[in-house]
Amino acid sequence: MNLDTRIFYDINDFARTTPWLHPIVSGYAAYGVVLFAALLLAGWWSARRDGDTARMAAAMWAPLGMLVALVINQPIAAAVDETRPCTALHDIVVLHCNTDPGFPSDHAVMVGAVTAGLWLVHRRLAALAAVAAVVMAFARVYIAAHYPQDVLAGLALGAVVSLAGYVLARPLLRWLLALAAGTPLRILVTASPAKPVAAR
User: Fold this and answer.
1) Cβ-Cβ contacts under 8 Å for 168 (sequence gap 6 or more)
2) Looking only at Cα atoms, what is the longest distance across the chain?
3) Out of 1, 47, 154, 200, which residue is the most buried by the measure of CB atoms under 10 Å away?
4) Between vectors from CA 60 to CA 54 and to CA 61, what angle results, nearest 5°?
5) Which of the 8 DSSP states describes residue 181?
6) pTM
7) Cis omega (within 30 of 0) on the bond before 101?
8) Where are the transmembrane segments (predicted)?
9) CA–CA separation, 155 vs 140, rounded Å?
10) Domain ranges of the chain
11) What is the dihedral of CA 138, 163, 64, 69, to 10 degrees?
12) pLDDT tens figures, 56-72
């Protein structure tokens, strides 16, 4: 038995001895992504309030980076084609099971990308997201939907795609922000009032 499977069994044994946690962990494993959506919204609001162009560009990218990371993950997961533990292993506690490939974890990719994106926007929000991401990774293993390596790979992939993508997309994002500043969309990217046009 390899280390990854051994750690999975240790977490599954913990799940077996904590039935009172099942609805809480299962709920977070399935719907915890809503928390990350709220953190993204808070990051956007913070950047808009402060009128910081660099942070607003990062706030614009953070949700896009998550989507890009998910798109990149799909062919990787299909190529690896890993059977999930809930299907591959017997005599384990299973709280949720999918039939699609499990490596890397889509949920972990999403929360890893959001955490990295928020790190560019607001460090305190990123710290909250990092804690929530670790809990999400644990929850996905706890419910037997993934092995530990699935969620670790997902967190890493999401973070790398988000950070690398921002470096590439930053010039375009800043150009779009400058363009939006002269339109009614200005209200979405900054809370500061438009500068009055000087009289001739």
Assistant:
1) none
2) 81
3) 154
4) 90
5) T
6) 0.90
7) no
8) 28-47, 125-145, 151-169
9) 12
10) 3-176
11) -50
12) 899 999 999 999 999 99
